[in-house]
Specification:
By secondary structure, the protein is mostly helical. It has two domains: 7-191, Rhomboid-like fold; 205-272, no CATH class. Helix content is 68%, strand content 3%. It is built from nine helices and two strands. A hairpin with a 3-residue loop joins strand 1 and strand 2. Helix 1 packs across helix 3 and helix 6 packs antiparallel against helix 7.
């Protein structure tokens, strides 16, 4: 869990998020800090300025704050991004940041959080952590870098801490953390339902579609032999493989239908031969 993937091998959305946070942090040290906070922080009374629901998540003014957030992001986001695909992961991250801000507004309205500005990636990070717990509930992490614990249990401890500390005036936007967790979990629920529906339709309609489109285009070039599983000629094989790899990149490995998984397995065996 503590082994970090080298930066150059990280998915593109992760690289972009890490770089954006680092650049904004450095800019805050060259006489731009006040401008960045004034125009970028999330302030409840200025919630009508919609860009703040995203911009605040890239602002850190304290070195330990950005170091901890980006380290945790690096640790959890890598596997989440690989599982969801780059597009879904980017949506998850941005929606978690937005919803964390939205979730805080009612508590500001009731005077539970004053009118303090909110900055930092914590809300979006908690959304990513919730997604990680959804995908890998049995994974062991080091709670507070000391205590080994399954993520499905650790996430509840994080939630309990935020609930307990919500009115402690410790300078932490605990309600934003809770909003991030909730948005991450809801996103994963919708994502898992869409994958289930896609798999259902792939099983019920996939072979029909495959036979109409695939055979029409390639059967004349390389007719199937009796008793042999037809996979097409060499160019068709590469084309089919690229289609599947692009789908993995867009929506994650779990979105593949059984036919697509079988094709990848068959293609791998052919390459070994």
């Amino acid at each position: 869990m503590l082994g970090l993937t080298p930066f150059k091998y990280l998915p593109r959305p992760m690289q972009a998020i890490l770089l954006a946070n680092a650049i904004v942090y450095l800019l805050s040290w060259i006489n731009l800090g006040d401008y960045i906070l004034w125009y970028g922080a999330f302030i409840p009374s200025q919630a009508h300025e919609l860009w703040r629901f995203v911009s605040y998540a890239f602002i850190h003014t304290d070195f330990m704050h950005i170091l901890f957030n980006m380290l945790m992001f690096w640790m959890f986001a890598t596997e989440v991004c690989k599982s969801l695909g780059e597009r879904n992961f980017t949506t998850l991250y941005l929606l978690s940041a937005i919803f964390a801000g939205l979730f805080s507004i009612p508590f500001y309205a009731f005077g539970l959080m004053g009118n303090h500005a909110v900055i930092g990636a914590s809300g979006a990070l908690f959304g990513v952590m919730a997604a990680y717990a959804f995908l890998f509930p049995e994974q062991i992490i080091l709670m507070f870098f000391i205590v080994p614990m399954k993520i499905k249990h650790a996430i509840w401890i994080f939630i309990a801490i935020d609930l307990f500390m919500a009115n402690s005036s410790d300078g932490v936007a605990h309600f934003a953390h809770l909003g991030g967790v909730l948005s991450g979990y809801l996103f994963m629920l919708f994502w898992s339902k869409s994958i289930s529906l896609e798999s259902f339709f792939a099983k019920s309609k996939g072979p029909e579609r495959y036979s109409r489109e695939f055979f029409k285009e390639h059967a004349k070039q390389a007719p199937p032999l009796e008793g042999e599983l037809y996979k097409g000629n060499s160019s068709a094989k590469e084309e089919r493989l690229n289609e599947i790899l692009e789908k993995i990149n867009r929506t994650g490995l779990q979105s593949l239908s059984q036919e697509e998984r079988d094709y990848l397995q068959w293609f791998g065996k052919q390459n070994k031969k």
